Amino acid sequence: MRSFRLGEIFCGPGGIALGAKNASLLAEKIGLSITHTWAVDFDPDSCMTYAHNIVPTEKDKVICADVRHLDISRLQPIDAFAFGFPCNDFSLVGEKKGINGQFGSLYSYGVKILDRFQPEWFIAENVGGLRSANQGSAFEKIMQDLQDVGYNLVPHLYNFADYGVPQARHRIIIVGIRKDLGLEFKVPCPTTPKPITVRQALLENPIPSSAPNQEVTKQSSTVVERLKYIKAGENAWSANIPPELRLNVKGATMSQIYRRLELDKPAYTITGSGGGGTHVYHWEENRALTNRERARLQTFPDDFKFYGSKESVRRQIGMAVPPTGAKVVIEAILKTFANISYFSVPAKWQDQLRPQASQLKLLENSIRYG
């Protein structure tokens, strides 16, 4: 059995890690596996969540530290690496400072680890806004730095709704394979013939009453009254809301503000931060979703326990990579190393036309081993 020793920075609560663990279980039948060697994050709550769910018997593998002050020479050798570097400065919402912002240069610590340990492959994740940050120069700089330390790169803009996540979530994932290995990664074909809807994700298999992180948010009386006028799919700007309940905000018409979910569509993007109106709202009840409902839409299992305050848990869930999406990409990486072919699509930077359902019917098992 060949095992890839995985290291992570900016590991968050463990979205990529859980995807890797699930991919590893399937890969064992072809003689490959993934072992979690170390994971780093600066947020204590995220570290507790990761340790409890990913390495419960080896919690010392989780290092709670700021990467800017991390002595990487003391880390154990690795064969695989993952980093969802902070996206704050690359988001399409906000000041969009890109690589010049407070968080924009943190990707470089991932480059340092790649340069030192030379793992055989890595996966890096960020928001779609990375493409346009600093008029595109930020992305070019990041790609060049990753290539310079010895990797062939395949970046792709994934819509995770095409890969079994009940959410329209567009994220850039860069897969790198060390140049000397002579292997070519290909973007796995979408696995979901039809997007999974909110109804399927939240109602067909109800959340158990014993599930953690299921506390209902108490809405103010004003918010409750406002939500009464917002129908499923509408938001604070499109709904017919009385003047006294309208938002008095100039120049801000974000479509997600007090937007209700639609039962028969995937959810809109689950976010980890933001003020009033950004918590994702129930299609019928006059409330925001619980953290457990958000976690379901991010494909975390119901027994995955998040630590910290309600707002901390919300941030962890929204910032995480959906485990189901990570699993599909990592399965494809493992297949690449096992020389097992799989159906793929061209790597692209813009939204793709969904393949015809008849094509997907032939491909729906393409990512599974066996």
What does this structure look like?
The protein has a domain of 236 residues: Rossmann fold. 26% of the residues lie in helices and 15% in strands. The protein has ten helices and nine strands. With 370 residues, the chain is α/β, with parallel strands linked by helices. β2, α2 and β3 form a beta-alpha-beta unit. The chain has a seven-stranded mixed β-sheet with strand order 3-2-1-4-5-7-6, sandwiched between helices. A two-stranded antiparallel ribbon has the order 8-9. α1 packs across α9. The chain starts with a strand and ends in a 7-residue tail after the last helix. The longest helix has 15 residues. 44% of the residues are buried.
- Calculate the terminal CA-CA distance, rounded to whole Å: 16 Å
Question: What is the CATH architecture annotation of the domain at 2-194 and 321-363?
Answer: 3-Layer(aba) Sandwich
User: What is the alpha-carbon Rg in Å?
Assistant: 21 Å
In the predicted model, the low-confidence regions spanning at least 5 consecutive residues are 87-104, 350-370
- CATH topology of the domain at 2-194 and 321-363: the name is Rossmann fold
Strand content: 5-15%
Helix content: 25-40%
Outline, from the CA principal axes? globular
The level-1 CATH class of the domain at 2-194 and 321-363: Alpha Beta
Q: Give me the count of strands.
A: 9
Oligomer: single chain
CATH superfamily of the domain at 2-194 and 321-363: Vaccinia Virus protein VP39
Instruction: State the major sheet.
Output: 7 strands, mixed
> What is the H/E order?
EHEHEEHEHEEEHHHHHEH
Mean pLDDT: 87
Give, in spatial order, the strands making up the sheet with the most strands: 3-2-1-4-5-7-6
Number of helices: 10
